[in-house]
C-alpha cells in the first residue's frame, strides 16, 4: 500500500547552468544548447562568464577560494534549475537502455554506517574529480566513483545562497556552516540521512544535465517504491523527490569537464529539528520529510531496542535504504559496483 502525504516544506537544492562562474537562477522556458542541455526541457537558466570569490563571514563559514576557469570547456556549474518536466514517467527517457552490457565499473567508497565530517568528504570528492580530469587528459579510461556516507550535523550553502535564509547568527551557529560550489540555497545534513556523492564521467553515460538530474531523482523514487512502498514523484519546477508536498530527497550538484560531484541526500531516520533553524532552499511554504516519518507503523524509538515484529528500527531502515540505493543506482546508470577503501583514496591523493 502506497503511503502519501498531503502537506509540507522543502529542503531544496536546485540548479542552473553557468560557465566557470557562481550565479543564480532564471525564468522558466529558457534553454541551453551548446551541446550541454538540449532545448525544450524548460530549464530556467542564467548564463554568465568570469567569476567572483566568496569570502567567509565568520569562523564557521568555509569558502571555496580558487578562481574557476574562464574556459567554457573547463567548468559547467549547475547552480539553479527550475525544471518543467512534462515527463513524470521516467521510462519515457529510457535511461536504463543507454549503456548496453557489459556494464562499466564503478568504484564505491561505502561508509554508510559512519558519520563523516563534511569537510573531509568534500576534500575526497575534489581529489577524485582531479584524478579523473588527469585520466581524461592522458586519454585513459575514467571509471565512475560513488561515495556513500552520513554526515555529522552541518549546514551547507550553495554558491548563490543568501544569509537571510539562516534563522541564526553566523557568529553563533548551532552547527558548522560551509559555503560550497554546489547549486542552491542552504540545507542540513546529519545522522540518519544517507548521502550519495556520484563522481561520474557523463561522457560514459549521456552529456545532458537534465538527464543526469532526472536519473538521480529516479534512483530515489525507485528506492522508496520498491523498498518502502512509498509512492514518490517529481514536482513541476522543483528538483528533488517528493511525497505529496514533503521533500524526502534533495539534489545539488556541480559538473566540471563533464565530471559530476556533490549529489543527493535522502532523509531516512533524520531528526528534522535542525531544519527549523533555516529556510530550506529559501522556500517557506513546504516541509521536509523522512522515510521514518512517513512509515508511521515502522517508527522506532531509542528505548525500543531491536525492531518489534515487522517494524524495523532506525538501524534496519538505514540498512534497507542503503542496499536499495546501491541497487537502483547501479541499475539506472548500468554500472558494476566494486567496493574500495579509504586507503585506496589516500593512494590516489599521493599520485596526483
Automatic annotation (TrEMBL):
According to the entry, every stretch annotated as the BPL/LPL catalytic domain falls at: 140-337
UniProt xrefs under InterPro entries: aa-tRNA-synth_II/BPL/LPL, BPL_LPL_catalytic, Octanoyltransferase, Octanoyltransferase_CS
Q: Which Gene3D superfamilies match?
A: Bira Bifunctional Protein, Domain 2 (3.30.930.10)
Q: Some GO term, biological process aspect, for this entry: which one?
A: protein lipoylation
CDD domains recorded: LipB
Q: Record's SUPFAM superfamilies?
A: Class II aaRS and biotin synthetases
Give the molecular function GO annotations: lipoyl(octanoyl) transferase activity
E.C. numbers? 2.3.1.181
**Known pathway:** Protein modification; protein lipoylation via endogenous pathway; protein N(6)-(lipoyl)lysine from octanoyl-[acyl-carrier-protein]: step 1/2
Supply the alphabetized keyword list.
Acyltransferase, Transferase
Q: Which NCBIfam families match?
A: lipB, PRK14345.1
**What family does this chain come from, according to its entry?**
Belongs to the LipB family.
Q: HAMAP family, from UniProt?
A: LipB (MF_00013)
Q: What is this protein called?
A: lipoyl(octanoyl) transferase
